Amino acid sequence: MKVFFDEDNGTAIPRALRGVGAPNADILFPRPGGPILPGAPDVEWLEFVGRNGYLAISQNRHILDVPVEREALIRESCGVVFLANGEQPAYRALQLLLNRWDWLQTLDANETRPFAYILPFRGKAAKVI
Fold this sequence. Notes:
The chain is 37% helix and 18% strand. By secondary structure, it is α/β, with parallel strands linked by helices.
């Protein structure tokens, strides 16, 4: 599974997942010298995610409300999981992702793209695209 973390997640979560050896994962996030630079517009990383088969993790649900960004998500056949509340500390988001890792792998392997889910810290994930 190839996972791209939107910049709004920070770097601690993807670095921690790399550090613990998240199973079957190629983990990317915006960084100097990387394929997506810090500060890149959402449309740019959505295009990268879709064209390269990454599952994106984001805390920016406003992507769904901005027409050009929502259109890019759909046009580029992206798979995106939005964490429901960006106000949680990073360790809680990391805990959520680790607890739902098997679900993320299944989603990535079996869900027809484009798709977008909202993954709450409590309760079931909801498909929004």
